[in-house]
Amino acid sequence: MVDNAGPDTGGEDAGPEPRPGSVRDMLAANLRRARTERGLSLSELSRRSRIGKATLSQLESGSGNPTIETVFSLSRALEVAISDLLDHDRPSGPTVVRAADVEVLRGAGVDLRPLRGIEAGDAIFEVYDQVVRAGARQDSLGHAGTEHTIVQAGRLGVRVDDRYLELGPGDYVAFDAARSHSYTALEGRVRSVLLLQYRSDQRLHSSASGAACLAGTAGRER
């Protein structure tokens, strides 16, 4: 996924109180942990992420309403996997993720549903259902990991630095997610599977083992 982070202009919109296990609830706890472990003040994290100090304070208290842009900016600034900011308790046995049970992260042009995290040796993969809205574009300054996208439906324009590609159903692209990149829906909305790949040393929860389920326990996004 991608973010179009720039200088913060006013913070996240406050929403209702976070539910246990919700994206906001998980982000609040994991953001505090990641920042503390790295010895960063709110002011320094604000400088690195280009997110206002007041917004960061809201996010850490669970009163903010995080967007795709915010989460990816924090991932880039803290150099951690997205799942380490949105992680929650790992289930045992088979994991079934129902579409209606996953909170949607929304960005300028993308709706992103985190489905599952997979640990395999020294690699960590995060699986997302990604929809680029019709006629929309999502820009990113770059973030940690390697990005893999498989188009399921529609035509997707992908720009990585100065290189431009067009993908159709069944097409696949991978690139270093630290590079600036963008996704554009060329003909109607585009549905794709997004996989983010990280090295194990980019994992905040280094003591965790087994596959991590990223899907939130809350219902539909309001």
Explain the overall architecture.
By secondary structure, this protein is an alpha+beta fold. It has a domain at 99-202: Jelly Rolls (Sandwich). 22% of the residues lie in helices and 29% in strands. It has helices spanning 23-37, 42-49, 53-61, 68-78, 82-86; strands at residues 105-106, 110-120, 123-132, 137-140, 146-153, 156-160, 163-167, 172-176, 181-185, 190-199. The protein has a six-stranded antiparallel sheet, with no helix packed on it. A four-stranded antiparallel sheet has the order 4-9-6-7, with no helix packed on it. The longest helix is centred in the first third of the chain and has 15 residues, at 23-37. The two termini are 21 Å apart. Mean pLDDT is 80; it is low at 4-20 and 206-222.
